[in-house]
Fold:
Amino acid sequence: MKKFQQILLLSVSLLPALAQAQLRVEIPGVGSNQIPIAVASFAEEGQSPQQISTIIKDDLARSGLFRVIDAPQAISDTANINFSEWKGKGVDALVAGSVQKLADGRFEVRYKLLDTIKSNQLSSLNNAALPTAMRLTGHQIADDIYQKLTGEKGVFSTRIAYVSKRGREYLLEVADADGQGNLPALRSSEPIISPRWSPDGTKLAYVSFELRKPVVYVQNLVTRQRTIVANYKGSNSAPAWSPDGSRLAVALTRDGSTQIYIVNADGSGNAQRISNSSGIDTEPHFSSDGQSIYFTSDRSGGPQIYRMNASGGEAQRITFGSNYNISPRPSPDGKSLAYISRREGKFQLYVLDLASGQDIHVGDTPHDESPSFAPNGRYLIYATESGRRGTLAVVSSDGRVKQRMSPAAGDIREPTWGPFMQ
Structure:
């Protein structure tokens, strides 16, 4: 019960080392049936502050779904393509493009995605971007390629958030999905935990101890305005957004033991209690359709995951694979549930098929925690440990593709994957 009690008490580990500004991504293995794709250097991209073709190649390779083949030379989007030659090299798709600096300081980026098998064009893009937006442009092109070749939306241009500690300072940081371009959203001398993205990607809910107790805040990432949404007697913890962004499910102790409540995301009104057990109910998460809430409870004698109606009522137990299951995270399509299970003394990430009741082990360390689905449901980001320090990892929901985001030094915890940006 020790780890579960730590969650309920909202304790935060002392993270001693300094975290560097960037994250390194390592990929120990990839999945099978990869699509062979050649990504050529873009014509004149050397004048850009970011190499667009490199960003695209890194994104596609990291997905595990593509075998990225380097082209021997730059290929402009206006070049004549010998499709038969590329097909003969085992290339199914070819990416070509160009970068031109405009008089106003922006860069015009043009790209084409070509099908070498059918000898036709699959997609194109023409975008003028500020120098600071060139990484985003590269991610957006990679997303377009991913969608055209797999049929599902890519997540390269989405963002993640996580908590790090530098010296005695805690930081809530926001970064690209590949861990690059991180910026602090909040700095504090007191612990910050449980960040969660709003459905529109403009806000973060989190718990801060700056008032010498756990209090739930919502912060607008554009205006930096912060709002207290839960500061009741005792502990206020574990915020989770409703799909429409108007409410948060939280865990409060204001009436005694830890129970689930609903509060308005703008901080107005009073908290509405929706769970009523003799045990401890915490870690709520709305289902994708907003009709249900998954949560962790020890009502059966040990921590297990339950589901109840979003307005309260009888709860149904969901997990049975071990006597210790916590941190429920329903998938965007509502078909599966990620969670942390303790088995043989190890805390490991599992994904449960809600229809069949079958689960699979997808994590690869004994210290997994805080899973969060990518908005397309194909990947999960989670916290783990490497060399006795916190680090982040990404795994596909089937467990076949694994990545490790390793800070050069220090600890990083509590990741959350943001939504598709509108």
Observations:
- Helices lie at 2-8, 52-63, 83-88, 134-150.
- DSSP finds four helices and 30 strands in the chain.
